[in-house]
Fold this sequence. Notes:
The chain has 133 residues and is of the alpha+beta class. The protein has helices spanning 14-27, 52-68, 83-103, 108-132; strands at residues 5-12, 31-37, 43-50, 73-78.
Amino acid sequence: MSGEALGFIQLEGLAAAYLVADAGLKAAGVRLVNLERIDGGSLMLIRFAGDVSSIQAAVEIGLNAAQAAGSRARGHVIARPSASTTGKVTTAGQEAVKKCMAEAPPDAEHQDEQLAENEVQPVVKETVRRRKG
Length: 133
């Protein structure tokens, strides 16, 4: 992960977090570092890693997908994180991904697929169109 940029999206709602992570992953060549419940309630944090331009695209598209899903969200990109920052993100991320996946309802995967088809694809297409134009 050395030399990779980091992208963060904080938002409300587990289903929205899966939707946003999926949109970011589909739209750009990034890796999902983790998806974590950060307050014991509905506040979620998504972390991506990859090259700077891909992270910027994933965060932008993720924020647009969150807005389309009616979830408040904020995003940030760290273009050149220090090694200690990167290490803390990946260590915390591995356990958080396992925990979050274990807490997901059994039908969450199918709900997210339907949401992605109906809501994310138009958002991704519009964002890509605006970036090119």
